[in-house]
Design a protein that fits this description.
Length: 404
C-alpha cells in the first residue's frame, strides 16, 4: 500500500497535490483515500462516491467504463485546487464512519443520510444526484416491466433498480447531472438544485465521408444492462415491423440478461433487420465504423440521471431519438418521443429516414456540436469549479462566521 501511495504522488506533486493516506475499512474491505494540497488545508471535504480513481497512479489510468469514475476524481480536484483536503470513501460502503469533522460532505445515494448523522450541523451536505429519484426510477421500471409482460407474456428481470434513499431530504443542496427531468424528480423536497452537465467517456471526430442517403436506414441501440428500463424491448419490436433496408445494431452486453435474450431471441437473432453486435467498448474501432454508416441512436429510456449512452452516440455524430426521461437536452436537433411506445419508435424512424440527406447531415452535426460544447470532461470540470466557487465555498464561509 505505501508503494502505491508513493507511485501516485510522483504524478500528483507536480500539480501541487499529495495522496496522504490509503487504507481499507477492515469490516467491508472498501478502500478509503485521503488527498491533501501542499501546505495547511483551508478546510476538509468528505466525498462519498467512486474511490477507485484514487487508487491508480495517473488520471490517464482512470477507467472509462462509466462517466462517474473520472467525475468523482475531478470533483475532488475542484476542492483540492482551492486548498481543501479531501477524504474519499466508496458510496457502496455502508459501514465507514467519519473520524473527524468536515466542512463539506458530498455524497451519492443512500450513504448521505447515514454519514450526515455523524457530522455537525455546520457541515454543508451536498447530494450528488447521479440518478433520477429512486421512486421515479423504480416506478418507471415497474411500469415498463408490466408493459413488457402484457405485450410479450414474459416477466423480465428488473435491472437498474435504485436503492431507496433519503439523500435529498438529508442534504442542504443538490447537484444534478441530468436535465430538467432528473432535477424535477427531486424538487418536492424544496432544496436548491444545481445542474452540472454530465461528462463523457470518449469524444470522436466528425465522421467524415458518411453517405447520408444510405445511412438514413441504419440505427444503433447503445447501452449497458437494464434493457427494459432503457427500452431495448420496444426498439426490437419496432424493427420487427419495419421493412428492409432498415437495420438496427444492438451494442449491448446481451449475456448479462439471459431472460431478456430468451424472450427476444427471435428479434435478436432471426430478424434480418437486427444485428446483435454485443458489447462494444468506446475505444473499439467498430463503434467508429457504426457511427460512420448510421444516422441515429434510439434510446427510449424510462429514467436516467444524464443519458450517458445517448451522449456518447451524439459525440459520434448520430441523431438522437429519445424520450424526455433519457434526460438529455436536444436544442434544435433530434427526435423527442412521447411515451417511447413501439408505434412512436416506428414513426420516428420512418420520419427521419424520409428527410433529405442535407437535412440529416445538418441535424447530425448540430447534435455532435452540442455534445462537444456541453458534455465533455473540460465542460464538466469548469461547471463543477463554478459550483464550488459560487455555491459551496460562500456557504461554507457563511456557516463558519455563524459559528464564530
Amino acid at each position: 500500500m505505501p508503494r502505491l501511495v508513493s507511485l501516485a504522488n510522483r504524478f500528483l506533486r507536480p500539480l501541487g497535490l499529495e495522496l496522504t493516506r490509503l487504507r481499507k475499512n477492515k469490516k467491508e474491505m472498501h478502500p478509503v483515500a485521503s488527498v491533501a494540497p501542499n501546505g495547511q488545508p483551508v478546510g476538509r471535504v468528505l466525498l462519498s462516491y467512486v474511490v477507485e480513481p484514487f487508487l491508480v497512479p495517473a488520471e490517464a489510468a482512470i477507467s472509462r467504463d462509466h462517466t462517474h469514475d473520472w467525475e468523482s476524481w475531478r470533483m475532488a480536484q475542484s476542492f483540492l485546487k482551492r486548498g481543501f483536503a479531501v477524504d474519499v470513501v466508496s458510496f457502496k460502503d455502508s459501514e465507514w464512519k467519519p473520524e473527524r469533522e468536515y466542512d463539506v460532505l458530498v455524497a451519492a445515494r443512500q450513504q448521505l443520510e447515514r454519514l450526515a448523522s455523524h457530522l455537525p450541523p455546520r457541515c454543508l451536505k451536498v447530494a450528488h444526484l447521479d440518478t433520477a429519484h429512486w421512486l421515479t426510477n423504480n416506478s418507471g421500471l415497474h411500469a415498463r416491466l408490466n408493459d413488457a409482460r402484457a405485450r410479450r407474456g414474459a416477466a423480465l428481470h428488473g435491472r437498474r433498480m435504485v436503492e431507496a434513499n433519503w439523500a435529498i431530504e438529508a442534504a442542504d443542496i443538490g447537484c444534478v447531472l441530468g436535465n430538467d427531468f432528473t432535477a424535477d424528480s427531486y424538487r418536492y423536497a424544496g432544496k436548491p438544485i444545481h445542474r452540472v452537465p454530465i461528462s463523457t467517456t470518449a469524444t470522436f471526430d466528425w465522421p467524415e465521408g458518411r453517405d447520408f442517403a444510405s445511412a438514413r436506414f441504419r440505427y444503433i441501440w447503445f447501452g449497458s444492462d437494464g434493457f427494459v428500463l432503457k427500452g431495448l424491448d420496444r426498439v426490437l419490436e419496432a424493427f420487427q415491423r419495419l421493412p428492409e433496408p432498415f437495420l438496427l445494431r444492438v451494442c449491448a452486453p446481451l449475456e448479462a440478461e439471459r431472460r431478456f435474450v430468451e424472450a427476444y431471441r427471435q428479434e435478436l437473432y432471426h430478424c434480418p433487420r437486427v444485428e446483435p453486435v454485443g458489447w462494444v467498448d468506446v475505444g473499439d474501432q467498430r463503434l467508429r465504423d457504426f457511427f460512420r454508416d448510421s444516422i441515429g441512436a434510439i434510446y427510449p429510456s424510462a429514467s436516467e440521471g444524464g443519458g450517458g449512452s445517448a451522449i456518447t452516440c451524439m459525440h459520434g455524430g448520430l441523431i438522437p431519438i429519445l424520450t424526455r426521461e433519457a434526460s438529455v437536452d436536444m436544442p434544435g436537433f433530434g427526435v423527442q418521443l412521447g411515451y417511447g411506445t413501439v408505434d412512436e419508435i416506428v414513426a420516428a424512424v420512418q420520419s427521419l429516414a424520409g428527410r433529405s440527406a442535407a437535412d440529416l447531415e445538418a441535424d447530425a452535426r448540430r447534435a455532435w456540436e452540442h455534445a462537444r460544447r456541453v458534455h465533455t470532461r473540460e465542460s464538466f470540470g469548469a461547471a463543477y469549479d463554478r459550483f464550488v466557487d459560487d455555491v459551496v465555498i460562500p456557504e461554507v464561509e457563511r456557516r463558519r462566521k455563524g459559528n464564530a
